[in-house]
Design brief:
By secondary structure, the chain is α+β, with helices and mostly antiparallel strands. Helix content is 21%, strand content 31%. The protein is elongated and about 80 Å long.
Length: 199
Amino acid sequence: MAWLPESVNLATRYLYYHPHHPTWYKRPDWFVAVDVSPLYKNGDLRLSYVVWQERMRPFIIVELLSPGTEKEELGETLRDVAKPPTKWEVYEKILRIPYYAIFDRYKYEFKMFKLDGGRYAEVILSDSRFWIPEIELGLGVWEGSYHNIQQPWLRWYDSTGNWVLTPTEAERERTEQERRQKERLIEQLRALGVEADLG
């Protein structure tokens, strides 16, 4: 699982990547296209992303390894010339995505690749974290509970090193802040000799 701030998050189903083959698509688990809304202009949720219409290629792709597609996602399969290119070929050669992240959900291993001279080079990660200066976000492995499942998860972090809050965590934090503010107000009123019941 990976969480992104809403302003850059695109978790669409289909990524159409080749104008001369408009039916060819890939289905990345996550990708980020900077300054592109997850909604269409009419407010509908974006369920596909057509690169030649958007004129903006994704900036980073995140794949969660699956047994059936692992070799393709790791660039270990050769292309069948009778079929569309593999994911690795599309991300590296056709779209030239600057960053490509892979998370093995079974071994909990995180790999990051950066486009270097037209080819992906694996980045050595010292602490299972990688900072992306262009979007001022980092991606790393976090151990915790999400949807009541305790395990390592792929997660975004900010410039201070803090994990980006999930919607549930953000709501919990807001509720806790409101509770503390109410308690402070009650204490201030009591100090003035006023008993207050703020519910």
